[in-house]
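Note to self: the last two entries modelled the partners one at a time, which told us nothing about the interface. This time every component goes in together.
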Amino acid sequence: MKYPTRLSDAVHILAFIALYPDCDLTSNKLAESVQTNPAYVRQLMSALRKGGLLVSVKGHPRPALAREPEKITLLDAYRAVEGNKPLLHQDIHTNPACGVGVNIQLVLRDFYLDIQKTAEHKMQEITLKDVLEQYHIKLEGIHT
Amino acid sequence: MKYPTRLSDAVHILAFIALYPDCDLTSNKLAESVQTNPAYVRQLMSALRKGGLLVSVKGHPRPALAREPEKITLLDAYRAVEGNKPLLHQDIHTNPACGVGVNIQLVLRDFYLDIQKTAEHKMQEITLKDVLEQYHIKLEGIHT
DNA sequence: TTTGATGTTATTTTTATTATAACAACATAT
DNA sequence: ATATGTTGTTATAATAAAAATAACATCAAA
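The predicted structure of the combined assembly is written out below.
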Protein backbone atom coordinates (compact mmCIF):
# COMPACT_ATOMS: atom_id res chain seq x y z
CA MET A 1 0.00 0.00 0.00
CA LYS A 2 1.23 3.37 0.99
CA TYR A 3 0.46 4.96 4.30
CA PRO A 4 -2.49 7.35 4.13
CA THR A 5 -1.62 10.94 5.00
CA ARG A 6 -4.94 12.47 4.02
CA LEU A 7 -5.82 13.51 7.56
CA SER A 8 -2.43 15.10 8.09
CA ASP A 9 -2.63 16.93 4.79
CA ALA A 10 -6.20 17.99 5.43
CA VAL A 11 -5.31 19.52 8.79
CA HIS A 12 -2.29 21.12 7.16
CA ILE A 13 -4.58 22.76 4.63
CA LEU A 14 -7.19 23.81 7.17
CA ALA A 15 -4.54 25.36 9.41
CA PHE A 16 -2.96 27.18 6.52
CA ILE A 17 -6.30 28.65 5.55
CA ALA A 18 -6.96 29.69 9.14
CA LEU A 19 -3.56 31.38 9.31
CA TYR A 20 -4.05 33.35 6.09
CA PRO A 21 -7.71 34.29 6.07
CA ASP A 22 -7.50 37.27 3.74
CA CYS A 23 -4.98 36.14 1.19
CA ASP A 24 -5.23 34.49 -2.17
CA LEU A 25 -4.59 30.86 -1.38
CA THR A 26 -4.37 28.93 -4.58
CA SER A 27 -4.22 25.16 -4.60
CA ASN A 28 -0.79 25.75 -6.05
CA LYS A 29 0.47 27.64 -2.99
CA LEU A 30 -1.01 25.05 -0.64
CA ALA A 31 0.54 22.29 -2.71
CA GLU A 32 3.93 23.94 -2.32
CA SER A 33 3.66 23.80 1.46
CA VAL A 34 2.42 20.22 1.51
CA GLN A 35 4.90 19.46 -1.25
CA THR A 36 2.46 17.75 -3.50
CA ASN A 37 0.48 18.61 -6.61
CA PRO A 38 -2.42 21.08 -6.78
CA ALA A 39 -4.93 18.50 -7.94
CA TYR A 40 -4.42 16.42 -4.82
CA VAL A 41 -4.91 19.52 -2.70
CA ARG A 42 -8.11 20.30 -4.52
CA GLN A 43 -9.30 16.76 -4.01
CA LEU A 44 -8.77 17.07 -0.28
CA MET A 45 -10.43 20.48 -0.26
CA SER A 46 -13.35 18.99 -2.14
CA ALA A 47 -13.74 16.38 0.58
CA LEU A 48 -13.48 19.04 3.28
CA ARG A 49 -16.09 21.12 1.51
CA LYS A 50 -18.46 18.17 1.23
CA GLY A 51 -17.80 17.53 4.91
CA GLY A 52 -18.97 21.03 5.68
CA LEU A 53 -15.63 22.25 7.00
CA LEU A 54 -14.64 24.50 4.14
CA VAL A 55 -16.25 26.94 1.75
CA SER A 56 -14.83 27.86 -1.59
CA VAL A 57 -16.06 28.80 -5.01
CA LYS A 58 -14.92 27.56 -8.36
CA GLY A 59 -12.39 29.82 -9.99
CA HIS A 60 -11.91 31.96 -6.89
CA PRO A 61 -8.75 31.25 -4.85
CA ARG A 62 -10.18 32.30 -1.49
CA PRO A 63 -11.01 29.23 0.54
CA ALA A 64 -12.34 29.86 4.03
CA LEU A 65 -13.26 27.80 7.04
CA ALA A 66 -16.95 26.99 7.18
CA ARG A 67 -16.94 27.56 10.93
CA GLU A 68 -14.68 28.66 13.75
CA PRO A 69 -11.53 26.61 14.41
CA GLU A 70 -12.79 25.60 17.86
CA LYS A 71 -15.71 23.90 16.18
CA ILE A 72 -13.63 21.84 13.79
CA THR A 73 -12.28 18.64 15.33
CA LEU A 74 -9.76 16.12 14.09
CA LEU A 75 -12.62 13.66 13.86
CA ASP A 76 -14.52 16.04 11.58
CA ALA A 77 -11.52 16.20 9.28
CA TYR A 78 -11.01 12.44 9.47
CA ARG A 79 -14.64 11.77 8.52
CA ALA A 80 -14.37 14.24 5.68
CA VAL A 81 -11.32 12.67 4.07
CA GLU A 82 -11.49 9.07 5.27
CA GLY A 83 -15.18 8.49 5.75
CA ASN A 84 -15.86 5.56 8.04
CA LYS A 85 -12.57 3.83 7.40
CA PRO A 86 -11.47 2.14 10.63
CA LEU A 87 -8.01 2.39 12.16
CA LEU A 88 -7.73 -1.37 12.57
CA HIS A 89 -8.78 -3.72 9.84
CA GLN A 90 -10.40 -7.10 10.14
CA ASP A 91 -9.52 -9.95 7.87
CA ILE A 92 -12.70 -10.40 5.90
CA HIS A 93 -11.28 -13.26 3.86
CA THR A 94 -11.13 -15.96 6.51
CA ASN A 95 -12.60 -19.37 5.79
CA PRO A 96 -16.40 -19.14 6.21
CA ALA A 97 -16.51 -22.91 6.61
CA CYS A 98 -14.40 -22.68 9.76
CA GLY A 99 -16.71 -21.85 12.64
CA VAL A 100 -13.82 -21.04 14.93
CA GLY A 101 -12.39 -18.42 12.61
CA VAL A 102 -15.78 -16.93 11.84
CA ASN A 103 -16.63 -16.45 15.49
CA ILE A 104 -13.22 -15.10 16.39
CA GLN A 105 -13.60 -12.48 13.69
CA LEU A 106 -17.08 -11.63 14.95
CA VAL A 107 -15.66 -11.12 18.42
CA LEU A 108 -12.78 -9.04 17.09
CA ARG A 109 -15.31 -6.84 15.33
CA ASP A 110 -16.81 -5.79 18.64
CA PHE A 111 -13.45 -5.12 20.26
CA TYR A 112 -12.23 -3.14 17.26
CA LEU A 113 -15.37 -1.02 17.41
CA ASP A 114 -14.57 -0.36 21.03
CA ILE A 115 -11.03 0.73 20.21
CA GLN A 116 -12.28 2.82 17.31
CA LYS A 117 -14.78 4.57 19.54
CA THR A 118 -12.09 5.35 22.07
CA ALA A 119 -9.76 6.79 19.46
CA GLU A 120 -12.52 8.79 17.83
CA HIS A 121 -13.53 10.23 21.16
CA LYS A 122 -9.99 11.51 21.55
CA MET A 123 -9.97 12.85 18.03
CA GLN A 124 -13.18 14.69 18.78
CA GLU A 125 -11.54 16.44 21.70
CA ILE A 126 -8.80 17.93 19.54
CA THR A 127 -9.87 20.97 17.58
CA LEU A 128 -8.25 23.05 14.90
CA LYS A 129 -8.06 25.78 17.52
CA ASP A 130 -5.87 23.52 19.65
CA VAL A 131 -3.65 22.85 16.67
CA LEU A 132 -3.32 26.57 15.93
CA GLU A 133 -2.62 27.38 19.56
CA GLN A 134 0.15 24.83 19.78
CA TYR A 135 1.44 26.10 16.47
CA HIS A 136 1.81 29.61 17.85
CA ILE A 137 3.44 28.32 21.01
CA LYS A 138 5.94 26.41 18.88
CA LEU A 139 6.62 29.56 16.88
CA GLU A 140 7.25 31.66 19.97
CA GLY A 141 9.65 29.05 21.25
CA ILE A 142 11.66 29.41 18.09
CA HIS A 143 11.78 33.22 18.07
CA THR A 144 13.03 33.59 21.64
CA MET B 1 -7.94 -6.31 0.49
CA LYS B 2 -4.50 -4.94 1.24
CA TYR B 3 -5.41 -3.11 4.37
CA PRO B 4 -3.16 -4.64 6.98
CA THR B 5 -4.82 -7.59 8.73
CA ARG B 6 -1.80 -8.85 10.62
CA LEU B 7 -3.25 -8.08 14.04
CA SER B 8 -6.53 -9.77 13.15
CA ASP B 9 -4.75 -12.81 11.78
CA ALA B 10 -2.37 -12.92 14.74
CA VAL B 11 -5.25 -12.94 17.23
CA HIS B 12 -6.98 -15.53 15.08
CA ILE B 13 -3.92 -17.76 15.36
CA LEU B 14 -3.42 -17.15 19.08
CA ALA B 15 -7.06 -17.94 19.79
CA PHE B 16 -6.95 -21.08 17.71
CA ILE B 17 -3.91 -22.29 19.58
CA ALA B 18 -5.58 -21.52 22.90
CA LEU B 19 -8.67 -23.47 21.83
CA TYR B 20 -6.73 -26.56 20.77
CA PRO B 21 -3.89 -26.85 23.25
CA ASP B 22 -3.18 -30.56 22.83
CA CYS B 23 -3.59 -31.07 19.14
CA ASP B 24 -1.24 -31.04 16.22
CA LEU B 25 -1.67 -27.57 14.79
CA THR B 26 0.29 -27.32 11.60
CA SER B 27 0.70 -24.01 9.85
CA ASN B 28 -1.33 -25.67 7.16
CA LYS B 29 -4.36 -26.18 9.38
CA LEU B 30 -4.14 -22.67 10.71
CA ALA B 31 -3.79 -21.35 7.18
CA GLU B 32 -7.00 -23.15 6.25
CA SER B 33 -8.91 -21.33 8.94
CA VAL B 34 -7.41 -17.94 8.11
CA GLN B 35 -7.73 -18.87 4.44
CA THR B 36 -4.22 -17.96 3.51
CA ASN B 37 -0.97 -19.81 2.87
CA PRO B 38 1.08 -21.63 5.52
CA ALA B 39 4.15 -19.46 5.00
CA TYR B 40 2.26 -16.33 5.95
CA VAL B 41 0.99 -18.05 9.08
CA ARG B 42 4.51 -19.07 9.97
CA GLN B 43 5.70 -15.53 9.45
CA LEU B 44 3.08 -14.24 11.85
CA MET B 45 3.93 -16.99 14.32
CA SER B 46 7.58 -16.06 14.01
CA ALA B 47 6.71 -12.49 14.97
CA LEU B 48 4.57 -13.68 17.86
CA ARG B 49 7.38 -15.91 19.04
CA LYS B 50 9.88 -13.07 18.90
CA GLY B 51 7.34 -10.98 20.77
CA GLY B 52 7.34 -13.56 23.52
CA LEU B 53 3.71 -14.57 23.08
CA LEU B 54 4.23 -17.95 21.53
CA VAL B 55 6.54 -20.92 21.88
CA SER B 56 7.17 -23.44 19.17
CA VAL B 57 9.99 -25.59 17.92
CA LYS B 58 11.17 -26.15 14.40
CA GLY B 59 9.71 -29.24 12.83
CA HIS B 60 7.23 -29.83 15.65
CA PRO B 61 3.63 -28.80 14.96
CA ARG B 62 2.68 -28.00 18.54
CA PRO B 63 2.67 -24.28 19.07
CA ALA B 64 1.65 -23.10 22.51
CA LEU B 65 0.96 -19.81 24.20
CA ALA B 66 3.98 -18.49 26.05
CA ARG B 67 1.76 -17.33 28.89
CA GLU B 68 -1.84 -17.41 30.05
CA PRO B 69 -4.47 -15.80 27.79
CA GLU B 70 -5.28 -13.18 30.44
CA LYS B 71 -1.71 -11.96 30.21
CA ILE B 72 -1.71 -11.52 26.44
CA THR B 73 -3.23 -8.23 25.34
CA LEU B 74 -4.20 -6.92 21.93
CA LEU B 75 -1.40 -4.41 22.32
CA ASP B 76 1.09 -7.22 22.88
CA ALA B 77 -0.04 -8.83 19.64
CA TYR B 78 0.00 -5.50 17.83
CA ARG B 79 3.55 -4.79 18.94
CA ALA B 80 4.62 -8.25 17.90
CA VAL B 81 3.31 -8.04 14.36
CA GLU B 82 3.27 -4.27 13.70
CA GLY B 83 6.06 -3.01 15.88
CA ASN B 84 5.73 0.70 16.55
CA LYS B 85 3.67 1.45 13.48
CA PRO B 86 1.19 4.21 14.35
CA LEU B 87 -2.52 4.12 13.57
CA LEU B 88 -2.41 7.60 12.04
CA HIS B 89 0.34 8.61 9.69
CA GLN B 90 2.00 11.97 9.36
CA ASP B 91 3.00 13.37 6.03
CA ILE B 92 6.77 13.32 6.28
CA HIS B 93 7.22 14.77 2.82
CA THR B 94 6.02 18.31 3.40
CA ASN B 95 8.15 21.20 2.25
CA PRO B 96 10.93 21.73 4.81
CA ALA B 97 11.37 25.28 3.50
CA CYS B 98 7.84 26.17 4.60
CA GLY B 99 7.93 27.04 8.27
CA VAL B 100 4.17 26.93 8.55
CA GLY B 101 3.94 23.40 7.26
CA VAL B 102 6.87 22.21 9.32
CA ASN B 103 5.41 23.51 12.55
CA ILE B 104 1.94 22.22 11.82
CA GLN B 105 3.38 18.77 11.31
CA LEU B 106 5.34 19.09 14.54
CA VAL B 107 2.14 19.95 16.37
CA LEU B 108 0.27 17.12 14.71
CA ARG B 109 2.96 14.77 15.88
CA ASP B 110 2.13 15.51 19.50
CA PHE B 111 -1.59 15.17 18.99
CA TYR B 112 -1.18 11.92 17.09
CA LEU B 113 0.96 10.54 19.89
CA ASP B 114 -1.85 11.44 22.25
CA ILE B 115 -4.41 9.60 20.14
CA GLN B 116 -2.06 6.66 19.76
CA LYS B 117 -1.57 6.47 23.50
CA THR B 118 -5.31 6.48 24.07
CA ALA B 119 -5.91 3.71 21.55
CA GLU B 120 -3.03 1.64 22.87
CA HIS B 121 -4.31 1.97 26.40
CA LYS B 122 -7.59 0.50 25.23
CA MET B 123 -5.79 -2.26 23.36
CA GLN B 124 -3.91 -3.07 26.50
CA GLU B 125 -7.15 -3.60 28.38
CA ILE B 126 -8.34 -6.28 25.95
CA THR B 127 -6.81 -9.67 26.55
CA LEU B 128 -6.88 -12.94 24.69
CA LYS B 129 -8.92 -14.22 27.60
CA ASP B 130 -11.58 -11.61 26.83
CA VAL B 131 -11.57 -12.67 23.20
CA LEU B 132 -11.95 -16.34 24.14
CA GLU B 133 -14.71 -15.57 26.63
CA GLN B 134 -16.70 -13.64 24.07
CA TYR B 135 -16.02 -16.41 21.61
CA HIS B 136 -17.62 -18.98 23.90
CA ILE B 137 -20.56 -16.70 24.59
CA LYS B 138 -21.09 -16.32 20.86
CA LEU B 139 -20.94 -20.10 20.46
CA GLU B 140 -23.53 -20.69 23.16
CA GLY B 141 -25.82 -18.19 21.54
CA ILE B 142 -25.67 -20.23 18.36
CA HIS B 143 -26.29 -23.62 19.96
CA THR B 144 -29.41 -22.61 21.87
C1' DT C 1 -12.52 38.80 -23.63
C1' DT C 2 -8.50 37.23 -21.61
C1' DT C 3 -6.27 35.14 -17.83
C1' DG C 4 -6.01 32.22 -14.17
C1' DA C 5 -8.14 29.43 -10.84
C1' DT C 6 -11.34 25.83 -9.36
C1' DG C 7 -13.88 21.33 -9.35
C1' DT C 8 -13.92 16.93 -11.23
C1' DT C 9 -12.74 12.70 -13.54
C1' DA C 10 -9.64 9.44 -15.38
C1' DT C 11 -5.20 7.37 -15.59
C1' DT C 12 -0.55 6.27 -13.98
C1' DT C 13 2.85 5.55 -10.49
C1' DT C 14 4.27 4.22 -6.08
C1' DT C 15 4.60 1.17 -2.22
C1' DA C 16 2.87 -1.56 1.90
C1' DT C 17 0.85 -5.89 2.29
C1' DT C 18 -0.10 -10.40 1.23
C1' DA C 19 0.81 -14.49 -1.61
C1' DT C 20 3.92 -17.81 -3.00
C1' DA C 21 8.08 -20.54 -3.78
C1' DA C 22 12.11 -22.73 -2.13
C1' DC C 23 14.94 -24.93 1.08
C1' DA C 24 17.89 -25.98 5.09
C1' DA C 25 17.12 -27.60 9.76
C1' DC C 26 14.63 -30.22 12.91
C1' DA C 27 11.30 -33.86 15.03
C1' DT C 28 9.23 -38.18 14.90
C1' DA C 29 8.33 -42.83 13.72
C1' DT C 30 9.78 -46.97 11.79
C1' DA D 1 19.80 -44.72 10.02
C1' DT D 2 16.28 -43.34 7.00
C1' DA D 3 12.02 -41.59 5.41
C1' DT D 4 8.46 -38.37 6.09
C1' DG D 5 6.58 -34.25 7.35
C1' DT D 6 6.95 -29.76 9.59
C1' DT D 7 9.09 -25.54 10.93
C1' DG D 8 11.76 -21.25 10.38
C1' DT D 9 13.54 -18.20 7.12
C1' DT D 10 14.53 -15.76 2.96
C1' DA D 11 13.58 -14.13 -1.47
C1' DT D 12 10.50 -12.86 -5.03
C1' DA D 13 5.92 -11.95 -7.19
C1' DA D 14 1.27 -10.35 -7.10
C1' DT D 15 -2.25 -7.32 -5.24
C1' DA D 16 -4.42 -3.20 -4.07
C1' DA D 17 -4.73 1.41 -1.65
C1' DA D 18 -2.84 5.87 -1.87
C1' DA D 19 -0.77 9.59 -4.03
C1' DA D 20 0.85 11.71 -8.33
C1' DT D 21 -0.46 13.43 -12.52
C1' DA D 22 -3.00 14.90 -16.64
C1' DA D 23 -6.86 16.94 -18.79
C1' DC D 24 -10.60 19.89 -19.19
C1' DA D 25 -15.05 22.15 -18.53
C1' DT D 26 -16.55 25.87 -15.59
C1' DC D 27 -16.33 29.95 -13.07
C1' DA D 28 -14.28 34.70 -11.26
C1' DA D 29 -12.06 38.86 -11.93
C1' DA D 30 -9.50 42.29 -14.30
